[in-house]
Amino acid sequence: MSMNLTQKIIAAHLVSGEMAPGAEIGLRIDQTLTQDATGTMAYLQFEAMGVDRVRTDLSVSYVDHNTLQMGFRNPDDHRFLRTVAAKHGVIFSPPGTGICHQLHLENFALPGATLVGSDSHTPTAGGIGSLAMGAGGLSVALAMAGEPYFISMPRVVKVRLEGRLTGWASAKDVILHLLGLLTVKGGVGKVFEFAGPGVATLSVPERAVITNMGAELGATASLFPSDERTRAFLASMGREGDWKELCADADAAYDDEIVIDLSALVPLVAQPHMPDRVVPVAELAGLSVDQVAIGSCTNSSYADMRMVAEVLRDKLVHVGTDTMVSPGSKQVLKMLAAEGLVEPLLDAGVRILECSCGPCIGMGGSPVSGGVSVRTFNRNFEGRSGTKDAKVYLVSPLTAAMAALHGQFTDPATWGTPPAQPELPAKAPSIRHLFVFPPADGSGVEVLRGPNIVALEQFTPMDDTVAAPVVIKLGDDITTDHIMPAGAEITSLRSNVPAIAQHVFGRVDADFVARARAAGTGVIVAGDNYGQGSSREHAALAPRHLGIRAVIVRSLARIHRANLVNFGILPLILCDRADYDRLTVGGTVTIPASSIIAGGEVDVQVEGVGAIRVRNDLTQKELDIIRAGGLLNHVRLSRKQ
Ligand code: F3S
């Protein structure tokens, strides 16, 4: 039977389930990655499973989020990550080496491999032909322990690329175009598989820009074939031996098809505060820009940085536009330095930041109050920049560089001739010696923990009947940033759940934590697409610590739904969307938990209102996990049996 590329990779890794769209499938996972903001918890969870050594082909622990080492917590976490990695057979990437997805693409990602990462932009590696998926830290911990990774068999959408990019349009504009077309909900349950003659016109780093922001579509993954461009990239990285050809069969079937004419694309911009609010840059001409930030896991490759340096060469950025650049890895920075491209950036008045996530996670580089920040990043949610009333616009590096020069958006028709898309050197300088490879036997390694590493609490199983008040009622498109805000102060507490839980919904409702703690239990009510955004599992773990036992919503985002299940929170969906209006804060909801069947409907009783019908889309296994009080309890139980 002919297969598309997604089906081929899934078939080669399938350990359970049928490859029918929507059916639960279990996949063998070849590689895992973690970053520090989610990694400490993933390794605490891995330790709790009692497995000595990772059972994947390759696992890497990157430190790229909280690299500034403010106070004792960040360095303590880094030391914990370094020592726990050595003990259990994980490669460690020290702070400052680069951003996890850029580094993984350069050094470890493989065509045809499965990769699960505790970061929602893990699909970046789809640019090289990996089936790469973002997951909660707990799922990654399980994959490291050799357990399968479970997903719903995705629907596969063929994105046929025709023509080639022209003028100032770039790979970023391809994915912004798709976001404008499909919205942030348009990819749920899908893999976007790129095909057609336009594919060969894009380098691996350009492909990775597109697969990176497939996460903003809510997609399970995005995938490019592995072809001669892939071979050239791997050869440049000194890894030509890792190349193999991979593509869909010529007559493969797809669930849907979209055609994009690359030659028709123009520079685009996603306006605040959602990545799908996309318009042509020309429409914003005249809008003043206070800050430009270039980098992130989306746009920090050598080619991106080089083109920015070419645009800014012998010029000065606008005096009112604070401009910063974060190269994606030390390899990128070394190449820029070797080719004399650091100097034009410095001379243009650019601030060169560390090779890390930096401003993307609010780790420095916050915009001025009420300011306009133009970023090459992937997310522009309210408050994420660290300045609550800032307005963040998402663009390509070329558009960002032009905004930096003019201090405002201008019409691309006035920009003149763009720099050429640079080729990668035949052999890029290696930074492989900077990774800390684990000893063959880690049994003698002592894991060093600071006071901020707090052992996990064991949650109680679900009672037969859950009676809990509605402790908060929210609207549509609530992100995991709304639930569990980021920023240096807060994320430094991620391995200390009682402390980080103090900040849940802190930017939405300052009284929430006190109300939830007073009730000792609670139900969250929300509208559509609850929990969209980053894979932050603390957005489920910390509410669970506060006693949250269920969410009742109109619809849920995929990764957050999985995290709710993993921590024993029941995700319930309103059968009648209008019932949302009947739920109010304070009213007790009584859920007959023991009567719930997987994929079924049930009446919940709402104080002062009466019965409200809810459904769930849980598998039997997911329901068992919730009843056990979460996945760790469930794994412990099943290992005892
Ligand atoms: Fe880092 Fe931002 Fe990407 S936080 S991993 S650069 S989305």
TrEMBL record:
Swiss-Prot/TrEMBL cofactor(s): [4Fe-4S] cluster
Domain of life according to the entry: Bacteria
InterPro entries, per database record: Acnase/IPM_dHydase_lsu_aba_1/3 (IPR015931), Acoase/IPM_deHydtase_lsu_aba (IPR001030), Aconitase/3IPM_dehydase_swvl (IPR015928), Aconitase/IPM_isomerase (IPR050926), Aconitase_4Fe-4S_BS (IPR018136), Aconitase_4Fe-4S_dom (IPR036008), Aconitase_put (IPR006250), AconitaseA/IPMdHydase_ssu_swvl (IPR000573)
Domain annotation Aconitase/3-isopropylmalate dehydratase large subunit alpha/beta/alpha: ranges: 7-283, 284-407
Catalytic activity: citrate = D-threo-isocitrate
UniProt KW keywords: Iron, Iron-sulfur, Lyase, Metal-binding
Protein name: Aconitate hydratase A
Top-tier EC class: lyase
Enzyme Commission number(s): 4.2.1.3
Pathways involved: Carbohydrate metabolism; tricarboxylic acid cycle; isocitrate from oxaloacetate: step 2/2
